[in-house]
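== Folding task for one protein ==

=== Format: two labelled lines per protein ===

==== Paired sequence and structure tokens ====
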Amino acid sequence: MRLVLFLFVLLIAASSAFAEKVVLVLGDSLSAGYGIAPTLAWPALLNKRLTDTRKDYSVANLSISGDTTAGGRSRLDKALRSYHPAVLILALGANDGLRGLALAPMRDNLTAMIDAAQRSGARVLLVGMQLPPNYGPYANDFAATFHSVAQAKKVPLLPFLLEPVVSRPTLFQPDNLHPLAEAQPLLLDHVWPALVPLLK
């Protein structure tokens, strides 16, 4: 009986050791796949790439269209408890900026989410955003907020998620805000080099 119990414990330990680790994506419509099939959004493509490259990770995409940093902060703790991610891709802030929300609370929310993820043992990739020039000085301060948070918390920063497609209007939906399915592989290729060092 003791031998059976011992073997059972070993089996459970082995299963845990070889279980896939989780990359948690916490973002907004740009990561949720707004206007396209969710299976075509860049986080879904990331999941496939992780499988194809035989990396022991899977993706949990908890991105919600319209979400802000405050919304993400309110639901992150539950997500951390549920998924125990090894890596958090934090891609929130675009809606804070588009709505012209105060930047100090956005900075505090991003900082709190990074702190919570790091306390849970997750490594963090912060994904930034930029606003159109017509937002004036606010646009510069908005972009700088991501840099200051990343520097203060010593986490890697991808400054602008849409960088590879922003100058290509044919890759956007009619709202000129959300990339088409054809743009998603480009977004993945943009995220990938920043993510790979965190896939330990």
Notes: Residues 19-198 form a domain with the Rossmann fold fold (CATH 3.40.50.1110).
